[in-house]
Amino acid sequence: MNFSDKAKAFGFDQAINYLEKDPATNIPKLAGLVDRFLPKEEFAEQRKAVMSAIEKKDNWYQLIMKMYELDAGTRVTFFRNFILNENFFGWPEQERNREKYGCNIPWAILLDPTSACNLKCTGCWAAEYGHKLNLSFEDIDSIIEQGKALGTYLYIYTGGEPLVRKQDLIRLCEKHADCMFLCFTNSTLIDEDFCKELLRVKNFIPSISLEGFEEANDSRRGEGVYSKVMHAMQLLKDHKLPFGVSVCYTSVNWNDVTSEEFYDKIIDMGALFVWFFHYMPVGQGAVSELMVTPEQRIELCKRIREFRRTKAIFAMDFQNDAQYVGGCIAGGRRYLHINAAGDVDPCVFIHYSNANIHNCTLLEALQSPIFMAYHDSQPFNENMLRPCPMLENPELLPEIVKKTGAHSTDPQSPESAEELCARTIDYAERWTPVAEQLWHDGTSCAGCSQCGGERG
């Protein structure tokens, strides 16, 4: 770390300590100082949004204040690792390496510590992977070391059920105390002892999978899982630990998971964020009918954006919010996925690769043919309501896979890109005219400009 970075880190720590003394009083003061002394072009939009939230005391301000109900050490570690390391320092380093190496460099790396899971949920692509694959502690440690050298300090565990590997994940938190770790989990393995471990390491945040209320959730995940999820949330809340919720919306549960009742429930339980994922018909036996209809997609988009404006929780809808991140973020543009066999996939839903982390470096994987095809082709559609080369543009993925010589990385039931995309052709045909009209009109959810629907 050079002198300039050390000075920034020192200033950051001083600011955090200042906020800890009296956040309600000192947040407006510090925001005003930052706004006054930073160059006008630096983080301009973000600063404007923060100042507006503080002045209005709106839902975003309430969310900031909820952070101060958390364990103090965990909160400070989050600020330092996520805001300072991953964004203030990491993002510029990622940009420099994108230019230096001529390829995508990820903001976050998703990886599967194991393919094992204690549940078998309907529509889960991981269920196709079997239960025998694992990345060793040394494998994951090497991935993180290589990632940090490129400027990446955010690592997100998927699976399988990552908490099958609790002890190794905690050891990785200890070794890489400068990183932030998130974990998609069914939460059934979260207990009192694990909460104590999270309080000790301070840099691990669970994102709990939830598919709606009890009937909808348990119909997909198994009887009794909903009550276990509620218990896990209560444990995390009681220990003042940060956590969020991960939702896969389908044609069956979309109404539940975008209802005000659902939002109020997870907020009351202590969730700070909710991430929405469009159901993808991945894997042999995937049910295409579970994909939402165009009408359902429009309505859920409207609801999510409205609640983003009014509820004290951070909501992200990865399929419908593509306009805010410039389209598809896979292929290392903002993230990539490494499965439990070591295959480096461009997307957690698209299992085709030329590279395996056991045979190449992370950088070499990012420069492999399929990753370079992503780099050279993004965005896949100028209409940001059609971002995906598999879901909304099903003609593209088979072309990419064929052109790059990539192979299926599903170890149980490999399928061709043509077979996968055959399940989305009808969906794309129905969604395309709707998306084109919305994009042409300048809105992304049926005229919902008041809740952030305007493209800009």
UniProtKB/TrEMBL annotation:
Q: Which GO terms describe its molecular function?
A: catalytic activity; iron-sulfur cluster binding; metal ion binding
Show where the Radical SAM core domain sits: 103-311
Query: Matching InterPro entries, A to Z?
Result: Aldolase_TIM, rSAM, rSAM_sf
Signal peptide feature range: none
Entry keyword Iron: yes
The alphabetized UniProt keywords are:
Iron, Iron-sulfur, Metal-binding, S-adenosyl-L-methionine
Question: What Pfam families does the record point to?
Answer: Radical_SAM
* PROSITE patterns tied to this protein: RADICAL_SAM
KW Metal-binding (keyword) present: yes
Protein name per the record: Coenzyme PQQ synthesis protein E
Q: What is the originating organism of this protein?
A: bioreactor metagenome
Query: Taxonomy-wise, where does this protein's organism fall, top ranks first?
Result: unclassified sequences, metagenomes, ecological metagenomes
